[in-house]
């Protein structure tokens, strides 16, 4: 949460600085236009390094906030998926008492606690005594 708050603080600081720079530029334009001396050419006015830095900082803040937003959206989506999976597992466990007690292999799968029903040589009677791995 502190990352978001620091990003918001940075954006706020940049916005305040940009507003101050704009008001200072407006004030200097008003002062230059009221002087009776040299002619003022508005086409030659540029924001300068301060304007570039303010624009770059604002763009970096927007990009950073975009990355943070995507990260939070992904995290929430994953949490939602996990909650759905847990809810489905709990519903299945409540519906099938054997699934809650032991799960897959212990409830009758090969090699688990349910292998007492196998043949005398330790292999399943349905398989005919031959295993695909040759053991």
Query: What order do the helices and strands follow?
Result: HHH
Strand tally is 0
- Contiguous low-pLDDT stretches (5 residues minimum) are 102-120
> What's the average pLDDT?
73
Global shape = rod-shaped
- Please report the number of helical segments: 3
Oligomeric composition of the shown chains: single chain
Given helix and strand content, the structural type is mainly alpha
Strand content: under 5%
Percent helix, as a range, is 55-70%
- Determine Rg (CA atoms, Å): 35 Å
| Main sheet attributes: strand count, strand direction, barrel closure | none
Terminal-residue CA separation: 57 Å
Transmembrane segments: 50-70
Region (Disordered): 97-135
Keywords: Membrane, Signal, Transmembrane, Transmembrane helix
Protein name: LPXTG-motif cell wall-anchored protein
What does this structure look like?
By secondary structure, this protein is mainly α. It is 64% helix and 0% strand. The protein has 3 helices and no strands. The protein has helices at 2-34, 48-95, 97-101. Helix 1 (2-34) packs antiparallel against helix 2. The longest helix has 48 residues, at 48-95. The radius of gyration is 35 Å and the shape is rod-shaped. The relative contact order is 0.06. Residues 97-135 are annotated as: Disordered. It comes from Leucobacter albus. This is LPXTG-motif cell wall-anchored protein.
């Amino acid at each position: 949460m502190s990352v978001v708050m620091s990003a918001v603080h940075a954006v706020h600081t940049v916005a305040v600085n940009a507003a101050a720079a704009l008001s200072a530029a407006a004030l200097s334009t008003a002062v230059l236009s009221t002087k009776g001396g040299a002619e003022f050419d508005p086409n030659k006015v540029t924001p300068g390094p301060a304007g570039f830095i303010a624009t770059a900082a604002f763009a970096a803040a927007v990009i950073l906030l975009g990355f943070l937003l995507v990260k939070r959206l992904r995290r929430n989506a994953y949490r939602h998926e996990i909650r759905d999976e847990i809810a489905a597992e709990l519903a299945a466990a409540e519906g099938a008492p054997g699934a809650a007690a032991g799960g897959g292999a212990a409830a009758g799968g090969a090699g688990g606690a349910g292998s007492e029903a196998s043949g005398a040589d330790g292999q399943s009677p349905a398989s005919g005594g031959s295993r695909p791995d040759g053991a």
